[in-house]
Amino acid sequence: MSTETHLKQHYIGGGWVDSKGGKLHEVINPATEEAASTVVLGTAADVDAAVAAAREAFKSFSQTTREERLELLNRIVEEYKKRAGDLAKSMAAEMGAPVSFAGTAQVGAGIGGFLGTIAALKDFSFTEQHGANKVVYEPIGVVGMITPWNWPLNQIALKVAPALAGGNTMVLKPSEECPGNAVIFAEILDAAGVPPGVFNLVQGDGPTVGHAISAHPGIEMVSFTGSTRAGILVAKAAADTVKRVHQELGGKSPNIVLPDADFEAVLPPTVQGVLVNTGQSCIAPTRILVQKEREAEAVGVIKAMFDGTQVGDPMSEGAHIGPVVNKAQFDKIQGLIQSAIDEGAKLETGGTGLPSNVNRGYYVKPTVFSGVTPEMRIAREEIFGPVATVMAYDTLDQAVEIANDTEYGLSAVVSGDPAKAAEIAPKLRAGMVAVNSWGPGPGAPFGGYKASGNGREGGLFGLKDFMEVKAISGIPA
């Protein structure tokens, strides 16, 4: 059967099955505002069936060896590469990532998640001796996974790969905004020979399927990526069963530009993070902090970047950016842009309304504001669109204070001399600090402080977060 058919089913116990009472839902193409695909929205009964399959599969899969899991992960990577084109087209149609970008960065991020886990698993010590105690890492059990639409394959891979590596079984609920890539991913795992019940896919929305996963007594851990608002709901639903809650939530990342930085050299690679993926990245460094005397100079460089960014059809090849994912996101971004204008920020380029070259779709003009102050809404709320805010500081101490003045703590950027950046990095209350780049380096633990979540993803730290720790005392060392 085709991927189109599988969108209307769930993948449970090693096969494609019809939903128990679910209803069909149209996924809207954000470029055309017309239906891109139709997905089934599952029910709590579907989650029950998936958990039962996962619990049965756990009995044997938890006993597999490191070598067996490594072979499985490598087979998945090989099958994944065969479907790269299909994955790119699916994401372009459903969430608007231009097909060139989707086929490189989006698809590549998913492969990267598997390769990082494979490298970590090869060297992982499942047993450690601590004095008279033997400490053992063991599978945690059945893991519930709830993933977002913005970097969909990346977030699926950063959960599924370490869960498999740790010997766990799982139930995945991808975003209903962008479900097609998850269906192809399930087809990839099936082709790679993942044993029945080890990986289960249940399509659906947050209030029904997401809640059922979070609250399910047969699930030992829930791993969620999404908004802080939704993450709080997941944690509350999980509390009654005292399951582990692993979260990667919102961000409001600062970009501290050092006073003596070469703007032409350091701003493009860091400010690019506000444009990549149409600004729909939790680590987008939207708060650009520049010394007051050089604000106009920085604005000139940033404005030129944004004015040079083309907006266009995600199905066309090229380096342009696409629309944001849906009308709700578009309306939210438009409201934030208008709020900045109303609160007295200076609009340098962009603004409200559609770009001049399109007459439909959820396209946002690449927008730059200067004169933004910390109390403005646009300086406090996550934008999730191609909107940069330039903020002025007098001293570096004040820059650090402004950078930390947020409920979030996912990531931070420092632009300028790396040796001077090394002095700033320890002062920033964020889980990741990147110097002269907008994202963390390969293999770095991904996650944040404060309202940005709990736990880490990627590589060794991601693998450990999907394991239980057992202490054995009184046996020979």
Automatic annotation (TrEMBL):
Keywords assigned: Oxidoreductase
Domain Aldehyde dehydrogenase: residue ranges: 16-472
Catalytic activity: an aldehyde + NAD(+) + H2O = a carboxylate + NADH + 2 H(+)
Keyword check for Oxidoreductase: yes
Enzyme Commission (EC) number: 1.2.1.3
Domain of life: Bacteria
GO molecular function, one term: aldehyde dehydrogenase (NAD+) activity
Protein family per UniProt: Belongs to the aldehyde dehydrogenase family.
Protein's UniProt name: aldehyde dehydrogenase (NAD(+))
Organism: Sphingopyxis alaskensis (strain DSM 13593 / LMG 18877 / RB2256)
